## 1
Amino acid sequence: MKSRLVASAAISALVLLGATGCTFISPQSTKIEYSASDGVNISDSDGPLDVRNAFIVATEDGSVGNFVGAVVNPTLDKATLTITVAGLEPIEVPVAAGKTVSFGTADEEPLRIDDLDTKPGATVEIHFQSGDGAGTKADVPVLDGTLPYYADLVPSEQEEPTPEPLPTDTAAPAPAE
């Protein structure tokens, strides 16, 4: 009787060890960092700013795109992010201390990238630089407006003209005689 009790305890211990032993040799999935959305996260290890959920929504032919994402400044100083697509003029984004600027939202228009030359479904290499550091390169996905929540972010083929400011005539009208 005693040997059966010892054998059942030993078997129970082996089953328990076998069922939980995998956690000793495999990495924990919850510790793996990844971008949980369509965009990518970029942390400039040399600079103060971080970019969250960055992606581009482009026209069907990929000639024009809108950069969408959030730029986070967790510091106590104002900083500027420089976004550079190879062969194009850099885009500078100032971010106030402790603030986040979200492009492609109701508050901020997306950043237009003319002459993109990358079709939806591909990625484009973009260099992100802030502060005095060398910056970080990342492959940013290029999407289209197929999904309803991206449809409004597709840029128009031609750049929209800047509206003329309204005249600000502050003089009171002359009294009628």
## 2
Amino acid sequence: MHMTAWKRNLPAPDIAGAMLAMMIGMAAPLPAHAEDSANARSLVKNMSEYLAAQTTLSFDYDTNFEIVTKEKQKLALASSGSVLLNRPDKVHSNRFGGFANIEMLFDGKTLTVFGKNANLYTQVEVPGTVDNLVDVLRDKYDRPLPGADLLMANVHDQLMPEVVDAKDLGSGVIGGVECDHLAFRTKEVDWQIWIAQGNQPYPCRYVITSKLVAGSPQYSIQIHNWKTGGDVPHDNFVFNNSTNAKQIDLKDLPEADELPSNFVKGKAK
């Protein structure tokens, strides 16, 4: 179809919208200057030190986990949840989505994973810190905690060693909170983080974009209802089997994965 015919059949407001979309698509970020790069790294360092200083913290979150089908259609799976952390060795998390309703408790010795919909639970001995738990869940069981990088005792050392490019993109607003918007690149992923400005530099949003999977899917977590210290609700981090749930092996626990059973993981490109 000729351009004149395309314009004649398209309402005027849509033409303006299409042109704006084209302009946005052609826009390119300014190259990173040394000062901006250093500032971006410094802001992550400040956030890391602030998080490490919090012996107790809690927050609610919303996640989007993108997948790309073999037909190259990008889909997003959404879930919400909460995390309560007591350093160095206790955590209580919940995650509720269309395919999962999972509660996880760790008291420094035992990890309990409770599938609420199926009324099944499993327990695994994992003595040690929350850092150790994060590593074991990711490396041994392939069941990472939501936003696990942000729960570690030294977030800076988790995020920054492989960074090859850093940009300070100025201010952004997440959930009504003004944040510093930072972007980083590694060989395998691009990631962005929005850090609350002020004396509580907590992460408001964290987005990871894969470079190794066709279609460059993203994982994002947005944090709200941030609390620390005395504002954090009390928790004993012990599983109370009030529903008479049946105990099973971890590998047999259904609905514990972010990816539902009717999807099959493909290979990286």
## 3
Amino acid sequence: MGKSFLKLLKSFKYAGQGFYFAFHTQRNMRIHLSFLVFMFFFLLKYDFFKISKAEFAVLVLTSALVFALELVNTAVECIVDFISPEKNRLAGIAKDVAAGAVLVAAIAAVIIGIIIMFQPEAFSKMGYYYAEHIGELIIVGIAVILAVIWVMYPRKENK
């Protein structure tokens, strides 16, 4: 293998380490992932919701935007903490502004999700389905509880 291919592989390794760090240390990243997993689970496993390929693509794109901005926010926080370990007004502003960018994208993603997925008939079908399939409802309930534990479980940041 050539040097350029090995450098490419290393770049994927470093990106993976960045993802791991963000998911391991950032509660908001785990919140985003939890909502994303449940949303796409219900979209892909069942036929409750009727959405087009374009709407599905919009959901994927907005989800990716939130994740990307959360990764950038994590990078900004790490850089600011490294450069200014002591409390500093401008350092705090930089971190707040980066977090604000994530908030804007997350709010937009929720609004887009509501616009696309607000289908009362789908929720009605879901209710009837789970009334007849209590075992699956219990599994989904356990998954929600595990997701909440995963999100809320405190972790030490290894910065």
## 4
Amino acid sequence: MRLDSPKQNLSSKVRLQKYLALCGVGSRRACEACIDQGRVAVDGLTIEGQGLCIDPETSTVTVDGHPVRPQQKVYLCLNKPRDVLCTSRDTHDRKTFLDLLPDIPERVYTVGRLDRDSEGLLLVTNDGELAVRLTHPRYHMPKTYHVWLDKPIDANQQRQLLIGITDDDELLTATRIAPLPNDKSRFPAYEIILNEGKNRQLRRMFQALDRRVKRLLRVRIGPLTLGTLKKGQWRTLTPREIQMLNTVRS
């Protein structure tokens, strides 16, 4: 199955680390580390310093002796069910997000993660630069969650979530919290917005309030929404959605 996505537009000259990122080697920073480690060669000559510009049309670039070429960019939206991992491989043969997708020749990964028990919106791509913009704390990318608890929280506890809760020497804060209107579940439900994505953040915050998360669903990442996408289903992002994500600024 072919996944349509925008073609790469390489100028006649491009910095080596950017070219490597376009080839799917890793993020720009990871590619710079590859260069510093002497793992990258251009036209047979090992490169050990930053700043080199190459002509993609005429230069042959290798990493660890293997030629690399720009990948077609892939941008997918996936509704992750529970008991699915965000890792590409699992040593215990548990289901991963890749099991929900068709065979894709490019190496793709999730932008940020949802833990095994959490559900909802995942962005899957091979665009390392976009991944950095959407996950680095300085960009303050808002993420919206719907959370169901075993017991309700009062106004003072809601204020505490907004002020911040310290756990394992980390300050965990929410940007907004409000009861989820018209929810028919038997558990109290809330909509919560985070501007950060620390490990199991919401579960840790509610545990500090002596509350147990019964269900956690991510419904929005910045301008990207889960919409009517059903559990386990995926779709390609529209050009408009890709453009909006790429215009994220700090």
